[in-house]
Amino acid sequence: MSSAAPASAPLPTSAEAMWRYAWTVREFTASDAIAATGLTRSTVIEALDGLVARGLLRELPNARNAGEYRKGRPARRFELRDDVGVLIGVDAGRAHVTVVMTDLRSREIVARRVDADALSEDVDVRRRLLTDAVDDTLAAADRGRADVLAIAVGVPAPVDARGASPRHPDGFWDLMNPGLVDLFGWAPLVRIDNDASLAAEAEGAVGAAIGCRDYVTLLAGERLGAGVVVDARILRGAHGGVGEMIALDHVEGVGSAYGLGHVAAQWARDEIAGGTIAHDSSIGRLGDDLDGKHVLALAEAGDADAARIVDRLGARLARIVVVLGSVFDPSRIVISGAVAEGAGLVVTAARAHLPTDLHMPAPEIVASTLGAGVVVIGAVAAAASLTRERLLGVYWGSTPRAPGLR
Q: Quick check: pTM over 0.85?
């Protein structure tokens, strides 16, 4: 995580209060702001004028000019400048990179998805891919780097508070996060984070964990990764390792950190090879097209072979839930990512397989509705949060107007 250095002039608390308030409403009057913050009229007016001068708020026509004025002094009306600049969210996966550009209200302007060479181990290729993906997204909307206020990037690697990843024995984490804080250091505000942590941010903002203070988001596709939220804060750890699932290698009945989709497909192949599933069955006829989504879909359609695999998956997921519940004590575990769309029966089976003699109450298990885009949704939410929390400190002082303003 990184940000531009704040301007030297101190940031008035009144300006910060007005800035935060403006994010919570569409438009407002000075009287509305006074009622919301408890500040005096003169303090509020001074803060609002300062934000308008810096291009962060827009003053609207007053009530008389808007045709709403009846008598008395017309009220001054304001709104957040949602066109002051753009936000960038990136899901920087191994095989695909998705970039979404939005305005300050997180309304999508343009999105792009590019394929990556999942077998490449060239750090420079990876850096060029990510740079080009962001620059091409900006260009598609006739924007440039100067328009960007904040960028957040999710990577399949642990990420510490500085936005760096620890070294990995086979170099994978180094490849997925090849100095991205510096690569995107041209943006005023930058956050590099683990993809599961950003998925958790998405679930808390617009998904299955809205209003929940203690939850785990389990990205459950090819491999498992967890975004852990305790007391409404994402946990990270000294090296960003909170939520890494390698410990599951040592959990009886789980045995690995592979995700639901991968395990469903592997079990189906094993049963075909062992003769438990016939080659001419619905699953057997899939051949090289067999994957986890097909198995889950066949289970939904009532296929007995697929239903048996799904029940086994549910038992395995229940063990994972018990481990996460005993370590983090969440009230909810959200099964997230592309596989969640077809994971309803797995979730139902996992609930049935949960032990009844746990020391702590078992977490609620739910499936996400955000689909494959959950990480980039979380990245956009993180960029918006960065902007709301830090932008004013960056642009207050000697900078007369936000440089992204057109």
A: yes
